[in-house]
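Batch manifest line 322
LIGAND: iron/sulfur cluster
JOB: complex structure
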Amino acid sequence: SDVLLQVRELKKYFPVQKKWFQPASVVKAVDGVSFSIRRGETLGLVGESGCGKSTTGRVILHLLPPTGGEVLYKGKHLTNLSAAELRGLRKELQIVFQDPYASLDPRMKIRDILQEPLEIHGIGSRQERLKKVEEILEIVGLGGHYANRYPHEFSGGQRQRIGIARSLILRPSLIVADEPVSALDVSIQSQILNLLQDLQEQFGLTYLFISHDLSVVKHISDRVGVMYLGRLVELAPKESLYASPAHPYTQALLSAAPVANPDAKRQRIILTGDVPNPAHPPAGCAFHTRCPHAMETCKVVRPTLKAVDGHEHFVACHLHGE
Ligand code: SF4
Ligand code: MG
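JOB STATUS: finished
ARTIFACT:
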């Protein structure tokens, strides 16, 4: 089928500030992540805070330069593009942030916040741009008359609609949504998720949907990837991941989540130990310090993603494959 985005062995390392007499070290925030997203698909990316999911999203959009690996958009290597070429593609690749308030300039009226991306890309006259602003406000479920107001006049849910309008106004193909509903009340969350799904249908959007919340991801995703300490540990179609999680980490996350199927009577798996310091990830399988099934080989050999069945279900764990 039609692949829009391909991520191959993506890496993002951050230098760690140390004392001058200590050797330099790095945090491997993203350490060899590969996946692809089809046109019109939603790929959910989940994991605990600090697992590298947000960094993955930012590196894909080239808001951060990758340390290694490749990002291909419509078959083109984003990594090799000139600044001008990348600017041309910016329109097609947009982001929605977690905290709509922090991402909206409080001194700017909504119409200026929303027409700014059009202006930056040299699209239309001011009058044409303001007309587009009114249209996009209607599309995200706010009236065009809101254009003259300031961000503080809106509720959290309304502000996220404005954040979505801003990412949508350039008519992108791919939207990276980074915890777009995490700051909102549960009742508002489902409204925003429904809006995102409606917009996806209406405009043929493709989403990379990042969240720490498995129930949110379940609602909106076609496939789900699970990250742990900078690595993708499981990747599967939603039905398959939630019905038969293969990685012990995914199993633990699901057993703790309220979305777990109550009929399944899945026993809650309590993980021992904290998430290790990402500057010093455990050797072998990075999850071995917390895994209830860890074996000797897990401490030494890093597992790679392998298919567990014929339906695009992949897992990086020595319990599977071979
Ligand atoms: Fe657990 Fe070993 Fe699988 Fe890692 S590779 S998840 S330590 S069983
Ligand atoms: Mg994050």
